[in-house]
User: What shape does this take?
Amino acid sequence: MASSSFSIVVVALGVLALFAGSSSAQLSTNFYSKTCPKVFDTVKSGVQSAVSKERRMGASLLRLFFHDCFVNGCDASLLLDDTSSFTGEQTAVPNKNSIRGLNVIDNIKSQVESVCPGVVSCADIIAIAARDSVVILGGPDWDVKLGRRDSKTASLSGANNNIPPPTSSLSNLISKFQAQGLSTRDMVALSGAHTIGQARCTSFRARIYNDTNIDSSFAKTRQASCPSASGSGDNNLAPLDLQTPTTFDNYYYKNLINQKGLLHSDQVLYNGGSTDSTVKTYVNNPKTFTSDFVAGMIKMGDITPLTGSEGEIRKSCGKVN
Assistant: This one.
């Protein structure tokens, strides 16, 4: 009887250890509560400083999170700089000459390192900075799940293939998001990130000259600063949301209903297809949009993170230790 009780205890302890091991590999909102309690204040201060200097930076930091998570998960692979023996993701088509805010993340990382060295990953800093950017620009708040570790490698091909281009069709957008475990509704909600930020002429030139589902006066306005010839004015900017380009709201969807989406991949969300009803919902119920956006951001942050003993905590975000 005693030996049988002992066996039960051993099995029970084994089960507990199994659960402890699995739970330690999961993300949690209080991951740094003991090891780096000042992480949130430190990151927020850095984001606030950067956005106060340039409002557009909030959108750029949010975009970093998206472009990081869509390539092998949210692992800060995007931040790795090229070296003589390594080509990272920064020169991929979706990133070249367009990703911004790497220096902001570097600055925040150095501040975090001074508070608690070797504890907080660059991947988690991106996730927190994306949330803080949304909040600072008037959008919703949420508890960010943390515990990601940084990758030791990156994928140029992954960045080229996984991130949907601005010329995407609706079916392409749906499939690219589904490949990351995100639903069509998640995709429409997360596209609402385009309520802030700017796009380069190269991203919308084809739309303003070739698309027919576009408001004519809107097209003419955009054509004034984006010449039709490739190579001319390529880097000229236009707001993704012409109404309130530095405020996080639901005007992005209102623009789509008026055929004033800047990118082809924006307007396909409201073009007689399966997502029209969701766009209308977000126009009429801004609270539904923000709650769906938050749900989508949390879900995106859960894409195949490195946890436990995987990866590393980089000392500098641009290079492996």
